[in-house]
């Protein structure tokens, strides 16, 4: 083939085929999602304008029992937990401090702790049977 035959293949813009950052972020979020026991069908990762993720969580926060809960991440601020307000907007209620990209197990432990009802708020005395009349002298 001559050079003229290939001239129609010249593209007038640059294409960046380096998607390694995107793949690493997707893998990282996938590890968090599977660590939480989720399938990932209610989560997404976006790469533009900067890497970020949204993960819908099962369960509710004890202080917000009537609100859906989401785990949100971006490369600048790290992980946070948010609840949906009455019009569907996310409102951050907790932030995982430290590294913006901690190990997936750190994120899983943090989220699991947030979703667990505080044992101190339960009245376990209500589950302890009182003495029977026959036992009382």
Question: What do these coordinates show?
Answer:
It is a single chain. This protein is α+β, with helices and mostly antiparallel strands. The chain has one domain. Helix content is 23%, strand content 21%. The chain is built from three helices and five strands. The chain is globular, with a radius of gyration of 25 Å.
Q: Pairing-aware structural class of the strands and helices?
A: alpha+beta
- Radius of gyration over alpha carbons? 25 Å
Name the helicity range: 10-25%
Low-confidence stretches: 10-15, 119-137
For the secondary structure, the number of strands is 5
Kindly give the count of domains.
1
The total of helices stands at 3
Query: Mean pLDDT, as a whole number?
Result: 79
Keywords:
137 residues; alpha+beta; five-stranded antiparallel beta sheet; 5 strands; 23% helix; globular
Brief synopsis:
The chain is an alpha+beta fold. It has helices at about 5, 20-35, 105-115, and strands at about 45, 50-55, 70-75, 80-85, 90-95.
Secondary structure blueprint with pairings:
Layout (H helix, E strand, L loop, with lengths): L2 H4 L13 H16 L7 E4 L5 E6 L11 E6 L3 E7 L5 E6 L8 H12 L22
Helix pairs in contact: 2-3
């Amino acid at each position: 083939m001559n050079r003229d035959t290939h001239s129609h293949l010249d593209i007038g813009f640059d294409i960046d085929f380096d998607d390694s950052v995107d793949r690493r972020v997707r893998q990282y979020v996938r590890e968090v999602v599977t660590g939480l026991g989720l399938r990932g069908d209610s989560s997404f990762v976006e790469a533009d304008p900067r890497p970020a993720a949204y993960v819908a969580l099962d369960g509710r926060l004890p202080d917000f029992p009537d609100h859906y809960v989401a785990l949100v991440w971006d490369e600048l601020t790290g992980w946070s937990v948010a609840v949906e307000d009455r019009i569907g907007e996310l409102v951050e209620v907790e932030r995982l401090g430290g590294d913006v990209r901690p190990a997936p197990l750190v994120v899983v432990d943090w989220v699991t702790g947030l979703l667990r009802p505080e044992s101190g708020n339960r009245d376990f005395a209500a589950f302890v049977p009182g003495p029977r009349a026959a036992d009382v002298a």
